[in-house]
Amino acid sequence: MDSLPDLAAVEAMDEADPLRAFRSRFALPAGVIYLDGNSLGAASHEVFAEVRQAAMEEWGNGLIRSWNSAGWFHLPLELGDRVGRLIGAAEGQTVVTDSTSINIYKTLLAALAMRPGRNVIVAEGDSFPTDIYMAEGVLSTRPGITLRLEGRDAGTIEELIDDSVAVVLVNHVNYKSGELRDMAALTKRIQAAGALVIWDLCHSAGALPVDLDGADADFAVGCTYKYLNGGPGAPAFIYAAKRHHASIVQPLSGWWSHARPFAFEQSFDGDAGIKRFLCGTQPILSLRALKGALSIWDEVDMEALRRKSIALTDLFIRLVETKCGQYGVELETTRDSEKRGSQVSFIHSNAYEVMQALIERGVIGDFRAPSTLRFGFTPLYVSYHDVWRAVTVLEEILSSGSWKDARFAVRAAVT
Amino acid sequence: MDSLPDLAAVEAMDEADPLRAFRSRFALPAGVIYLDGNSLGAASHEVFAEVRQAAMEEWGNGLIRSWNSAGWFHLPLELGDRVGRLIGAAEGQTVVTDSTSINIYKTLLAALAMRPGRNVIVAEGDSFPTDIYMAEGVLSTRPGITLRLEGRDAGTIEELIDDSVAVVLVNHVNYKSGELRDMAALTKRIQAAGALVIWDLCHSAGALPVDLDGADADFAVGCTYKYLNGGPGAPAFIYAAKRHHASIVQPLSGWWSHARPFAFEQSFDGDAGIKRFLCGTQPILSLRALKGALSIWDEVDMEALRRKSIALTDLFIRLVETKCGQYGVELETTRDSEKRGSQVSFIHSNAYEVMQALIERGVIGDFRAPSTLRFGFTPLYVSYHDVWRAVTVLEEILSSGSWKDARFAVRAAVT
């Protein structure tokens, strides 16, 4: 292994970074090293301009006319295709709409309807919980369907799959550990058993190259407010492979999913394409913020992004282990860069207090119960120098024990 | 009946209008008379300030910290209570979340679960179609449940109710005709038959005083982008009477509806209150636009609003019938002001072309197939002089036949 980089070497990495120009597009506050773009991505100047245009010009002056003239009604499909480019989806297979939770519900029910006679949903016990909760919601209205959870029931995802399984809902990157699944291999394994797969891309869309079409995936869902930088609570997306479009039936059949929404017909007739996964009217200002964010993504080379992501996370792991290893931090994420997303988690027995101390010093990551320090590395606006500086601050906090101050133990109502 | 007001009399009505100061709060474009606030309400300066604050300060500078420090996570309940004041709901019974369509689905399933053994949903054939589509969506996953529609099946809503009916989904104000139902009487009738009622308030919230608690209503849903001026596609609301909270079960059980959302538990345990109707993460920028809009509503006397609404619509009807009656316009809305919302519809055999000609002249209403000219009167920013001027323009268009120009017959892709 190469010798540990010093500050000069780290600065040279920034000099050579082909993505470094993107940082100026973001409105980052002074004095902050932001390692939480995997929870809420940073705002960009493009976003502010889009929101101003949508609110003041289009809504303020255009009023109702802007549904036509500003293309508001077409945003779910337009933005869907732009997200599609980042997740390996050819046109017409992705829409931006509703929340990830709701989109999980739609895709689970669509998948169950396509596999009559099979009565099992498989998911992950260590998933972000809303995936499990939505599966339980499906169970509550579908007597006879059962849920198998990796990590609760015996066996891995692969071992839980048999010929009673209709659909597997699985995360591409785990929200806590950062573990990256092999999409192509697992999709193949699931489909070989006759089941369908729904990939949850919340922690991989915009974090690394995703190739849904290439993996022959069935469905995917994900959010746009993490690596895609669409803004707090920005609407989520759904992908469905074109081969399934004619078979999609889902019960959230609002007027935006009708084949002729403006004919105001008395009976439902679903759109023949991906719009079948829409439901009701969408929040335009939030969609327009996302449009601004995606205008940056249109310029990004995803392979270069992945190379920088791996370099950032590798550097962080090496520096933390070398400089802070003696203070009780232990790597939770895999050391194998091929098997992790764009985040790194460390375990520490007082992770909550340590994270509060970091945030007070301007290094923003997050805490996940019971003892995870989670750091996200967003290659568009995080520099190698940020990594260096973050580890320096972490080392100071751990070596001085300053995290033991009582004020860091006070928990906010919402974390 | 009084003699028909002349221009001087109309201007005197504006002088005496206790709500006239509100108009300056809105960012209305010059040269436009906006009679479509029942489709998309106008933008206000308060909204622009809120959106700027939320985007540039809270997201841009606060980043992830603003979920706590700016109270983002509490917006559904905070804004719900502020909408609640306008619809007669005491605190803790209303949340702002998702779309009206999705909220219909949640409340229908919650109501069905509360009436086991009853298997009929009653709704209206002439409802805005998404209400019917969502009921059909419920049917698609609930074999054995059937749908009765007033206007398709024989009988009025009242006649369709019997002891097999679990829930009645009914509009307070019809989106097309403007017909206003008697909420207290119909609620009583429905409950006497052992059923539950869901009021769709899309065209009455912010249009007139609504008294859900006073009517002893069970559930209500509605949108916030019409009379409430929350912005295009702003999130919708749900009301549930407190007495039902312990019984609410609905399958869109995302993490925001969990009793302890930040404990990240592996199994769902629903919130004991109105938050049980939340689901996933909400679009914060759109919610903050609504917050700005509601800051104006906090100052509005709903009784004064209703008086002006009736005066505006009465004046419009009288002027149109007197000045334009000879050109084939026929009143669709009831003449009885007690039985209509804040909108007036006229039938004309070439309604589409007439509306396009009006819009070109800066009088914005809307067209509803096949032959309705629909005009909304939003008392916060429509003046009596606007009414006068709109009718003058309509008279000019009809008397000259200028609407017959071929360009007015070209239909936009989305109307």
TrEMBL record, chains A, B:
So what does this thing catalyse? 3-hydroxy-L-kynurenine + H2O = 3-hydroxyanthranilate + L-alanine + H(+); L-kynurenine + H2O = anthranilate + L-alanine + H(+)
Q: Where does the UniProt annotation place the signal sequence?
A: none
Family classification? Belongs to the kynureninase family.
Gene of origin?
kynU
- What biological function has been recorded for the protein in this entry? Catalyzes the cleavage of L-kynurenine (L-Kyn) and L-3-hydroxykynurenine (L-3OHKyn) into anthranilic acid (AA) and 3-hydroxyanthranilic acid (3-OHAA), respectively.
This chain's protein is named Kynureninase
Q: Which Gene3D superfamilies match?
A: Aspartate Aminotransferase, domain 1, Type I PLP-dependent aspartate aminotransferase-like (Major domain)
Q: Which NCBIfam families match?
A: kynureninase
Q: Which organism is it from?
A: Rhizobium miluonense
EC number, UniProt record: 3.7.1.3
